[in-house]
Structures are given as C-alpha cells and as structure tokens.
Amino acid sequence: METKQKTIFSAIQPSGSITLGNYLGAIKNWITLQENFNCIFSLADLHAITVRQEAKELRKNTLEAYALLLACGIDPQKSIFFIQSHVNTHTQLAWILDCYTQFGELSRMTQFKDKSKKHADNINCGLFTYPVLMVADILLYQTDMVPIGSDQKQHLELTRTVAERFNSIYSPTFTVPEPYIPKSGAKIMSLQDPTKKMSKSDSNANSRVSILENPDDIIKKFKRAVTDSESSVRYDKNKPGINNLMIIYSCITGKKFDEIEKEFDGRGYGEFKAAVGESVISHLIPIQNKYKEFIKDKEYLEKCYKESAEKAQYISNKTLNKVMKKVGFII
Ligand code: TYM
C-alpha cells in the first residue's frame, strides 16, 4: 500500500525586509523539506495589515518577498507557493474558527501582548484575532507539520487546541499538526541586544541582517555585534552574544560547536566576528544574485503565484466545504 506523503504548511509576512532570523529559523528548512514532502507555502499579506501598511509599499514588499523566496530555493514545480489574499478560503475559515476560539485563549498570546505594546495607537481586532487566521491557514490544508521558529510555537499550540476542539464537537475534520522547530537557529537573536529576538520591525537596523543586505554592511553589523568582555569563543549560557554568533556560524557552515571552539581557540572575538560575517556573505550572495534575476521577470512571478493560488484554492475548498456542512450551513 502506498503511504500518503506528509503535508507541510508554513507562511511568512511580507512586511519589511526578510531577515537572517527568518531564513535560519524557517525558510532554510522549507527548502530542505520540499524535497521529500508535499509542501505549501504562503506570503501572509492578510496578516501584515494588522499593523498599518502603505498600500504601495505592501504591494512592492509582497512582490519582492515572492521573488526573494524563489531565490532562496522555493521551487514552484515542487511546492505550492501562493499569496494569502488570493485564496479566499483563509478569511472564510478564520471567521468560522473565531467562533470556536475563546477570548481568554487569545488574550494569553504573548505576540499579541508584545505587539499591542509596540503599536499602542492601533490595537485593532485583527491584531487580537490574528492567531485564528494562522490556525485557518494551517488547518485548511490538512497539514501534518509546520516548520517555524520558536516565536510561533504558542500559535501552533492554539492551532492544535482549536483543531481538537472542532474534531471533538463534530467528527474528525482537521489533521492535528505538529510544529517543526529546528534544534539550532529556532531563535536568532538581535545583534545589538542578544536577549531579544532578531526582528524585521526592530527600530535599530544594526540589530538585524537582511537577506538582501550589501556585504559591507553585513560585515560592519557583525563587527559591531554586542558580546561580553571576555575573549574566548566558547558556548556558555552566560554569553548570549557569542552563543548567538556561534549558532549563526554553525547553521551556515554546518560546523558543530566544539569544532568552532577549536577553530577559534586563542584567536579572539574580532577574528570570529569577521569569520561569521564572511560566512553569511558567501551564503547570501548566490541568493542575492538569483533575486536580481527573479525580480526583473514580473511575468514569471505572476505565472507562479497565480498557478499556485489556483491549486491552493482547490485544496482548501475541500476542507472549507466539509466544515461548512458540519456547522450547518446550506451549501
Ligand atoms: P513571521 O513573518 O514573523 O516570521 C516568519 C518565520 O520566521 C521565523 N522567525 C525566526 N526564526 C528564528 N529567529 C528569529 N529571530 C525569527 N524571526 C522570525 C518565525 O518563527 C516564522 O516561522 N504569523 C507568522 C506567519 C504565518 C504562519 C502561518 C506561519 C501566517 N500563517 C501559518 C506558519 C503557519 C509570522 O508572522 O511569521
């Protein structure tokens, strides 16, 4: 008997420039997983409007992010890669699942608490119910596994809770997904404050490296990375800055921590920071070159996202129809 290939779903917001944190925590794994699984990826533009966006900028960012993810290695021949707002089942299922999610559950979401502090002038309802849209994104495709960084873990737990709740009120409807969080790189930290995660929206641009950043700036940012006052390169829970750089170096080069410690034995932080910067640059340059090609070819980008949206619409309609029948709508 043929076993069914597992389905993977994940998404990223197209706001701002995609960072090395997004890449190492999520995108790099998407590329590996697409070789062996049935993969569906999305640009979550509907999520992006939970904070105020300039229309022109959002359109530009979305197209650029699409080209960039192709440059990172998403292959539209192997994976479905669509723009979330092109597939209308996401907002439809999100509304239904809003009615199966408790206010208290959403109030406990740490991202909501953080973001409402950051955007105190615009704590809109979308920001509050955003995790339910993410639940809908995942459940529509009967997803088995969701590759994410550790900051999305709580949203994945909510997804499992809502899926199990719906399945037990009615009958098995949704696959209950597992998170796929990498052992190394699940939370890349800010280069300026290694106790905070690296984020697209950090007001300090020196805190992050974006995938499209130019090599001189990348080197400068790593040289300026905040570390401690020691000088030996070793992994230690009291050295968050060095740990973060070791994780980045290890994810990029595939070297283990003890190999890195040996390589930099007696060489000091300056040399180590430069080496991390160089390794990141040589990894990113081929991606940057491919990006320049993809972004020029608007016709190809359109063909890819339209074909993918059609496939995603077809698959997700099946789940939505099942749900609508069970809830009691006339369809
Ligand atoms: P977003 O756009 O904030 O981030 C996209 C992915 O990058 C990971 N990530 C990180 N990983 C390691 N270190 C970091 N510093 C870092 N920063 C971000 C995130 O964990 C994520 O995996 N709500 C989601 C997008 C989304 C989604 C979904 C994800 C919408 N629907 C369904 C999975 C499944 C978000 O805002 O991710």
Describe the protein in words:
With 331 residues, the chain is mainly alpha-helical. It is built from 13 helices and five strands. The strands form two sheets. A three-stranded parallel β-sheet has the order 1-2-3. Strand 1, helix 1 and strand 2 form a beta-alpha-beta unit. The longest helix is centred in the last third of the chain and has 30 residues. 40% of the residues are buried. The site of tryptophanyl-5'AMP (TYM) has 25 residues, from strand 1, helix 1 and helix 7.
Characteristics:
binds tryptophanyl-5'AMP; 55% helix; 13 helices; 5 strands; globular; two-stranded parallel sheet; three-stranded parallel β-sheet; 7% strand; mainly alpha; 331 residues
Q: Determine the number of helices (DSSP H or I, runs of at least 4 residues).
A: 13
Helix content: 40-55%
The biggest beta sheet is recorded as: 3 strands, parallel
Number of strands: 5
What overall geometry do the principal axes of the alpha carbons give? globular
Bound molecules: tryptophanyl-5'AMP
Low-confidence stretches: none
Structural class: mainly alpha
Mean pLDDT: 96
Instruction: Write down the secondary-structure element order.
Output: EHEHHEHHHHEHEHHHHH
Query: Which percent range describes the beta-strand content?
Result: 5-15%
What would you report as the Rg, rounded to the nearest angstrom?
21 Å
End-to-end C-alpha gap: 34 Å
